[in-house]
Amino acid sequence: MRSLPVIAVTVGEPAGIGPDICLRLLDRARQAPFSAHVVVLADRFLLAERAALLQLPVSLRDWDASLPPRAGTLDVLHLPLAVPACAGRLDPANAPQVLALLDRALAGCRSGEFAAMVTAPVHKGVINDAGMRFTGHTEYLAEQTGTPRVVMMLAGGGLRVALLTTHLPLKEVPAAVTAVALEETLRILHREMGRKYGIGRPRILVAGLNPHAGEGGYLGREEIEVIMPVIERLRVDEGMTLLGPLPADTMFSRPVLARGDCVLAMYHDQGLPVLKYASFGHGINVTLGLPIIRTSVDHGTALDRAGRGEADPGSLFVAIEQAIEMARR
């Protein structure tokens, strides 16, 4: 039992479906136990209340690293909420606890207490309403670890799609597509495909920014002035296998995808709609470039489904499975 990796799961926004899907970990454990010791970081009383609301019989145990997993029991590392949480109703008073969950999981990963962290969804708006600037898990964990650049990648449905830019307004994307950003992102993606997926010489499909990858400069010059020079430089100087810049409207066709191991999209809504169409509910988010392993669900807080028994835990299960595999690798 002591050889099992310990995976920390943060419950996320207490008013959302995070508590619901974390409680469903017991269902998964009964059907096919994880090859790890899973501990949920949450307010223990929140989980008990949500279980009662959902009419789920659960046994909760306070986290103790010296104890092996126990069948039918969910281990909980208790971090209290400021005020009781109501399913579907956001309260900025609890935003500090949401970030405290991330901080505690991160500290455990850095100390070696946890092998990886898996995150349930948070609500960016309510955290900002509480007066704390927050653009997402990816950016927050990068800042807290002092990592100058991380890469957000979603995986599922047979696809791996990484992003050059993440949570930016669309009008700010072209200025963010720089040679430095693209070089650093491609290096991280190339390195992490080996570390996390065991692909030592990954083939990376690189999207263009503009329609038809700029149409030879008539629909934009970013491909000519930024993307192509970086691709050619990394091919020659660092031996990377890079294909592109490719028109995004055909890049996700089967013949093109068969030529690569992952895709680099230039912005959030260029790559993720295709991936979520192929895998929604069972895809995951992986943060590349951090000094720790972090995976996440690919969906939001779904406030309208919280406490109703309608939340699908599939993405959480896959996120944990992938975190275990990465930890063992």
What is the rounded distance between the termini?
Answer: 18 Å
- Can you tell me the CATH class of the largest domain? Alpha Beta
Query: Helical content, roughly?
Result: 25-40%
Note the overall shape: globular
The major β-sheet equals: 12 strands, mixed
Structural class comes to alpha/beta
Kindly report the average pLDDT value. 95
Unreliable residue runs: none
Number of domains: 2
Q: Which strand order does the major sheet show?
A: 3-4-2-1-5-12-11-6-7-10-8-9
CATH topology of the largest domain: Isopropylmalate Dehydrogenase
How large is the radius of gyration? 20 Å
Number of helices: 13
Assigned CATH architecture of the largest domain = 3-Layer(aba) Sandwich
Q: Kindly state the number of beta strands.
A: 12
**CATH superfamily heading of the largest domain:** Isopropylmalate Dehydrogenase
Keywords, please?
329 residues; alpha/beta; Isopropylmalate Dehydrogenase; 2 domains; 12-stranded mixed β-sheet; 13 helices; 12 strands; 40% helix; globular
